[in-house]
Design goal:
This protein is mainly alpha-helical and about 475 residues long. The chain has one domain. It has 18 helices and three strands. The protein is elongated.
Length: about 475
């Protein structure tokens, strides 16, 4: 153990004497600080704007005056996607999914005001966020820090000297890894403390109920990821003849895993499982509404069947004899069928999305960078699973609102008297304002179990490789 500590101390001294390493470390720290500050400012601004606008829209709904409930259902309201506090750390898909959606009867509108629409195509490479710095730039610093960890010892002859004095390869290897991990810890400790403090300060009024647990898990997965980068860099240096070969190998790996492979996987998923255009998707919904899901039951046929069933159920001859307004029932029946049509087409669309995402999850077993990308977005509440959950909650709220309007019409108005009946403020107040909380972290992580497995497998693999290589280590090759 004492040899391991001595090796670690020596590596720390060498690292802090290297001007390039210190310079790169300062750049990383500055970028982390700037990204965290900019993310926090953006979070506060967007949260304030969303809260203010949602309050205004709520006031518009409550003060719309007396009108027919079905007209109110078409008047509708807006719902806004809340900005999560951990979204300041990893922006994830927030720039692409939209921030608000208009809710009304008969229609499921798409989300509007996607921030990515206001940016150039360069946004596909990612905005400057803390997650981007940790995932992409910090590994570069680790590469320059550790690429010569073994080749320097071998070329200067100190490796042979150390081993001749009885220092084990195990102590040398893990001493170096300990030193580099300590450097990363010293760099990131203030940053992660700041993240925890910010997250904790906003935990009482944020959309993420378990923000503390998510923050701890974020630190844990990034610690695993950065340990992998350190361990791989040391292992490559151990296996390389020269520092130049080691650096070239590590930079090639970085380029492949961080730049080439993620883009290739995304392109392959789109090629294997192509999505229909928005125009085709909406046209399919309208076709099914017009002719039925089976293609043979237009609205007139469905309405006639509903009339017949309702009259038979209540044993009356005419619609006027029913104890409720049949128009409200028929409108809700049309709404229910429209929902059925939407669910049918949306499920087909969701199946394609799931296949695309599954391909990325499978690739994460091979590529730890993809795994950390997915897990970082997941724990930050900016991933596709969380957005889909939000979308489902919004649709459930829309359906509740429309159903409440149609039921009020059926219960409180007479058949054939559409414009004669008007509901008032008490009905509008009965509709609670929309609020959203992300699903618990254990449910979200179930959707990304392959990423968790991939990260753990990589950690196990590199430990096994290091232990195996330690047993075979020689001061010189050949």
């Amino acid at each position: 153990m004492s040899a391991l500590i001595h090796i670690a101390k020596k590596e720390l001294k060498i690292a802090f004497r290297e001007r390039l390493i210190v310079f790169l470390g300062i750049i990383i720290l500055v970028l982390l600080g700037l990204s965290l500050y900019a993310g926090f400012i953006s979070y506060k601004q967007q949260k304030g704007i969303i809260a203010k606008t949602q309050e205004e829209k709520r006031e518009e709904w409550l003060s719309q005056g007396d009108k027919h409930p079905h007209i109110a259902a078409h008047y509708g309201t807006f719902v806004f996607k809340p900005k999560t506090v951990l979204g300041l750390f990893d922006f994830g898909l927030d720039a692409f999914t939209g921030t608000s959606v208009y809710l009304e009867a008969h229609y499921q509108h798409e989300f509007m005001f996607r921030p990515a629409q206001d940016h150039s195509s360069m946004i596909r490479f990612g905005e400057l966020s803390s997650a981007l710095v940790l995932q992409v730039l910090l590994p570069l610093l680790i590469i320059f820090l550790a690429f010569s960890s073994y080749t320097r010892e071998r070329e200067s002859g100190t490796l042979k000297l150390l081993m001749s004095q009885g220092v084990s390869a195990h102590a040398i290897t893990w001493g170096k890894i300990l030193a580099y991990c300590a450097i990363i810890l010293i760099m990131l400790l203030p940053f992660f403390i700041a993240v925890l403090l910010i997250a904790n300060s906003a935990s009482n009024n944020d959309a993420i109920p378990d923000v503390g647990l998510r923050s701890i898990l974020l630190i844990a997965v990034y610690a695993t990821y950065l340990f992998l980068v350190v361990a791989i860099a040391v292992w490559v240096s151990m296996k390389s003849l020269t520092g130049r070969n080691s650096l070239l190998t590590l930079l090639t790996c970085w380029t492949f895993f961080v730049i080439l492979m993620p883009k290739t996987v995304a392109n392959l998923s789109e090629s294997f499982y192509p999505l229909p255009s928005m125009r085709e998707f909406k046209a399919g919904i309208e076709e099914s509404k017009l002719n039925g899901l089976d293609g043979n039951t237009p609205p007139s046929v469905r309405l006639a069947e509903l009339k017949k069933e309702t009259l038979e159920e209540y044993d009356v001859e005419t619609l006027e004899e029913l104890p409720f307004n049949f128009e409200g029932v028929s409108m809700q029946a049309g709404e229910d069928y429209g929902n059925l049509v939407y669910d049918h087409h949306f499920e087909q669309l969701k199946t394609i999305f799931d296949k695309q995402n599954n391909l990325g999850s499978i690739a994460s077993i091979i590529n730890p960078f993809i795994a950390i990308q997915h897990l970082s977005m997941t724990l930050s509440g900016t991933d596709s699973y969380t957005f889909n959950h939000f979308e489902e909650e919004v649709e459930a709220y829309r359906r509740m609102l429309v159903r409440r309007m149609n039921n009020d019409m059926a219960e409180n108005s007479a058949y054939g008297e559409f414009y004669e009946y008007a509901a008032g403020g008490s009905l509008w107040e009965d509709i609670e304002d929309f609020s959203y909380q992300t699903p618990p972290v254990h449910l979200v992580l179930k959707a990304y179990y392959l990423e968790v497995i991939g990260l753990l497998l990589w950690a196990l693999l590199i430990i096994l490789l290091l232990n195996s290589s330690n047993k075979k280590l020689r001061p010189v090759h050949g």
